[in-house]
Design a protein that fits this description.
Helix content is 74%, strand content 0%. It is mainly alpha-helical and 211 residues long.
Length: 211
Amino acid sequence: MIDPQTYMLFLLTAAVLVITPGPDTVLVLSRTLASGSSAGLMTLAGTQAGNVAHALAAGFGVSGMVLLVPAAFNILKYVGATYLVYLAVTTWRAVPALALDASLTGRPSGARRYFIQGLTSNLVNPKMVPFFIALFPQFVRPELGNVAIQSGLLGLTLAGMALLWISALVLLAGRFRARIATTAAIVGIANKLAAMTFLGLAGRLMLEDNR
């Protein structure tokens, strides 16, 4: 479904995105500080289930557009490139710190509720839909098969990488109270890497030939 070269490029891109602190990371680490590592891991599982759902939704949406209007895929690429440039600028200028919320104590308790909190937080985030729609068309090839299936595979890959990375942060945060995760230098470097990645992806979209 996805050619190896494209998939390798996605893995490199996903690695940068995963290490860059975002809303999911903030929520998971905040929950860890408030309720412990187990609660943080369940919240993380919920956020990544949400990411897979967003990926599938984006895939079905793009697939529908390709079937109805083949030229829509190329239009979507350029709209996505513009959005990625915006993300690059805002990420580069972002304050290098995580505003962790340790006041979550007393809120949802129990593994299922932590999972639901993570899932809900991710699904209702208005920035997630345009992000996935901007990102995934670069790594999807309609001529290689079902777009939704390709998007689902990419979503599972991204979620799996996030689970590994953020799980490590959760365990560190549970032990060291997030000193590492909130270090300004580390967050600042991650933000700069993400900004350059977004800009590079935007340039790739603009320069590649129409499919």
